[in-house]
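User: My advisor, Dr. K., asked me to get a structural model of this assembly before our group meeting. I'm new to this, so sorry if the format is off. These are the inputs:
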Amino acid sequence: MKKSEIEFYQKQLLNWYQKNHRTLPWRETSHPYYIWVSEVMLQQTQVKTVIPYFERFIQKFPTIFDFAAADEDTILKMWEGLGYYSRIRNFHKAAKIIVADYNGEIPDDRGMFIQQPGVGDYIASAVLSIAFHQPYAVVDGNVKRVLARLLLLSEPVNDAKNNKLFQKQADKLLAAEQPGSYNQAVMELGALVCKPATPDCLNCPIQNACKAFSRGKVGDFPKRLQKKPVPTKHIAVGVVIDNNKLLITKRKSGGLLGGLWEFPGGKINKGEMTEQACVREIKEETGLNVVIEKQLTAVKHAYTHFKIEMAVFICRKTGGGITLDGPVDHRWISPGEIEKYPFPGSNHQFIPRLKEYLKNI
Ligand code: SF4
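Assistant: The format is fine. Below is the predicted structure of the whole assembly, which you can bring to the meeting.
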C-alpha cells in the first residue's frame, strides 16, 4: 500500500475502534502490570473466558508484589481451567524477577523486558505499546487473519516460519502515534468483524483497502497448513482411598500441566488390561500396592496436541509405603479438601462424580 493509503486505512480503523470497541476491564487502565496480566491470559484464550479470571486475579493480586509473593499452588489454582500452565509459571517467575531486580517497576525498555520468562515478541509489543505507547506492532492469530485478507498474503498463517513476514507487514501498517489503540483495533477487528468463518465485510471499516474483498477472494484467505491428526493417549487413573483420605500427587514443575495436582495413573501399555495399568502405574509412581474396587467412570479430554481417554478407578491401599517416582509431592486429603488444590481439566471431568460417590460410602 502507498503511504496515503496506509494513512487512510489507519484512520478508518482507529475511528471504528473508538466507536465500536468492547468495554473490557483491562481497557479501563494503562497500568503495565494489569496490561501484562491480561495479555498473558489472552494468549490462546478467548476474551469472554478471560474476563472473570482477570477480575479475580487482580482482586487477589492487586500489585506485582502481591503476585510475586504468592505460592505456586495459589497461582495455579487461580489459573485452573485456563490451560497452558507454562504461561502462569513463567509469568510468576518474571514477577519475582521484576520485584527483586527492578523494585517492582516493569521495564519500559524492550531489550530488558523481553528477557523476562514468558515474554516473547507478542507480550513485549502488547505491553510496551498499550502501557508505554511505544511503536511496536503485535501479531497474533486475529492480526494474521486480517493481514492475510487485507494484503492477500498466501503464506500459511499457522506455519511459524512465516511469522517474520507477518510481523514485517504489521510493522509497515502500524499507526506509530497511537500504537496501543492501533494494535487493539486490529485485534478487535479480527475478533468482531473479520472473523474466521463469517467475516462481516459489508460492515468492515477497512473494506476499501481490502484486497481479498475487492477480488472476491475472502473465502480463500487466510491459507492454513493442514493439521496432522491429533493422537489419542489411553490412560488409567486411580483414586486411592485409605482411612477415608484420598491420595493426590503433584506433577513436576516443567512441562505440560506442570505443578498441578492429580490422581495418580498413567499410560496403558500395548496389550495391557486397563485395570492392570492402573495398579502398575500407582505402584511405579507412588510405591503403593492397591486393589481396584470398581470403575468410577471414563472420560475424554482434548489438549492442543493430543487427546486422552481416561478410565478412572476407585482403589484401596493394601500395602507399601510412599516412594515417589515422577511426582514431586503427595498429600492424603479429605474429600472436602479437593477444591483447595489445582487439578488439570481431565481430572475435573470426573471430580463431580467422585464427590457423589464419596458421599455414599
Ligand atoms: Fe476482513 Fe472482509 Fe474487512 Fe477484508 S473486508 S478485512 S475480509 S472483514
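One thing worth pointing out at the meeting: Residues 146, 149-150, 193-194, 199-201, 204, 206-207, 210, 212-213, 218 surround iron/sulfur cluster (CB under 6 Å).

User: Perfect, thanks a lot.
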